[in-house]
Write the structure tokens for this entry.
Amino acid sequence: MKVAITGATGFVGSLLVQRLHGKGHKIVVLTRNTAFAQKVFPSEAFPNVEIVAYTPNTSGSWQSVIASCDGVVNLAGEPIGEGRWTPERKQEILNSRKLGTQKIVEAIVNANPKPTVLINASAIGYYGTSETANFDETSQSGNDFLAQVCQAWEAEATKVKDAGVRLVILRFGIVLGNGGALGKMIPPFKLFAGGPIGSGQQWFSWIHIDDLVNLIMQALTKPEIEGIYNATTPNPVRMADLSQTLGQVMNRPSWLPVPAFAIEALLGDGAIVVLEGQQVLPKRTMETGFEYKYPNLESALRQILA
């Protein structure tokens, strides 16, 4: 296959490129920073990778490269868990997903021939937050800021179906790997200062990065997979259990809680990402027969920290 990927230099995208390249596929990396992408994917090590400069929120000549691709994976979006949610920051978070997806869909619709599939990222923030409810792919959306972002993001992706292109929307849980959210939790534990964030009762719906990349690969290659799937493990945990398990795996105490007010002081409205969660179950994902390598938290953490 030949696959175009946005967000290819990020946490998930870079592993996806490596995995696709290792299987002999060709990859078009759509990036705002070609110099950085060339460092991440040097041509000697990645001869099947083509790096193309693009402007995510505006139409341009970059869109023409989509015509030669079999599939498109759209992972681009401003990080949501970094820094305070000022009005400007919230607009960036929304635009990077809504407009970015709009321009990818525009490129697919105008392509001749068209790619056969679009894999579009979304997030479990779609469901809103709750300590008591559980959600699957059929659940209603929430009404907070992140839920509204996910609704707008998915609405743009859905327009690709009018062009007869297969669409798979993957609602990502919190991705565990070397980096990302876990990368921020490990240093305090190393210093014997780790513990649950906030009440500890909030749900933490997660997925190992290897399972997420395998899920994307499956969605690319299996034509019967279509629609919305939760990219989470079948075994979500509460924050207190995450902290306890991380402490056990690292052989460190996990009794020092991080108070909610400290996170709110740092992140403002963005604190909702870590202080409130949702229990999300991958019902449709499991119905496809997808096999998780790391369905349980302890085995996932042991592999990552090995």
In short: The two ends are 33 Å apart (CA to CA). The chain has eleven helices and 13 strands.
